Amino acid sequence: MTKYFSKNLWLLILLLILGLGISFSRPHKTQAAAFGHSDLITDKARGKKGPIFLVDHNRRLTVLNAAVFRQRNYKWNQVKRVTRTQLTSIPVWRVLSFKNGTLIKSRNKSRVWIMDKGRKKYFLLLK
Description:
With about 130 residues, the protein is of the alpha/beta class. It has 2 domains: about 30-95, 2-Layer Sandwich (TTHA1013/TTHA0281-like); about 100-125, no CATH class. It is built from 3 helices and 8 strands; from the N terminus they run αβββαβαββββ. The longest helix has 19 residues, at about 1-20. The chain is elongated.
């Protein structure tokens, strides 16, 4: 009885594998999948002058400027240089700006803004 059951079990497993198309080979990596969540990337053809992007759920967020980069405690050695093809394979989503509650002062004017939900709101006038 167990010999009969064992033989049929293996046959059933084989049919399931063939019928469901189960593959034991490694999946093919796409260009976008080569980057993990929170990877910092830039176009290597543009060198240090190109914009930096944060990869988030297979979308690119453009880092607004160097001040935002520093405020979020990113390090320059974390930035991966990638080809333009790899870069454009990830769709652009939005701009990564200052954190909520950050006070921003203009260099030329005596105005101060506060960041709220990714937007700059007028806060006060300095004299």
